[in-house]
Amino acid sequence: MLELMDVSRHFGGLHAISHVSMTVQPGKVTGLIGPNGAGKTTLINSISGLDHPTSGRISFNGQDISRMKPFKITRLGIARTYQNIRLFGEMTALENLLISQHGRGHASLFEALVFTPRYRREEQALRQNAHALLERFGLEHAADVQARTLPYGDQRRLEMARALATQPQLILLDEPTAGMNAVETHSLGEQIIRLREEGLTALVIEHDMSLIQQVCDEIYVLNFGQIIAHGPHEQIKHNPVVVEAYLGEDESEAHGAA
User: What's the whole-model pTM score?
Assistant: First the structure.
């Protein structure tokens, strides 16, 4: 589904990512881990169109998206969340989900202005989908609440719901449980597993190894901008290169963390 082929991104003399090749298989949850500064955010920005590779190729369902604009990538079926929450703070939770669906309607501006039957049907369908997502993430109570006033965990869930509102084929989750406690993290992990069971593909960037272990079918490890390991969790956590580079030099402590 998603394939990166020899992708590099340089900022002057700084090689943020270098010759990265990886594949995200359809219907799977793929993890991307690595220490701070490893290049994970640069990589996800390149996939989502916020940045572009210096060299190499990124393809989605066989189509080259390496230099495509973000809104076009979204329309192709890729959605993302952000490490730093980017909700529309002054809008309600419901409005955040409605605005994220603006590209799904087919009614013309004229139809919207005169409130035609087709426009009313589309608007009703979008509202039903938004309410279903609020219910799915336990946010029904927040429908008419400004996003900026919601508790942090609710904002995290709302951002994930907003990404799903675009009905993507692939969702990129950039540290989705940052700031969450263990219970909230496990609950969100169950949502990710549910998405996989429904056929959605996910790429998860995360520091919390408990979440990675819970949800991921396979893991890529990025260090100093390069992939240093790839495989299932059990293989990765026993890889001495990974233990030294990311999980810590004390292998026994690393296994406990993983």
Answer: 0.83
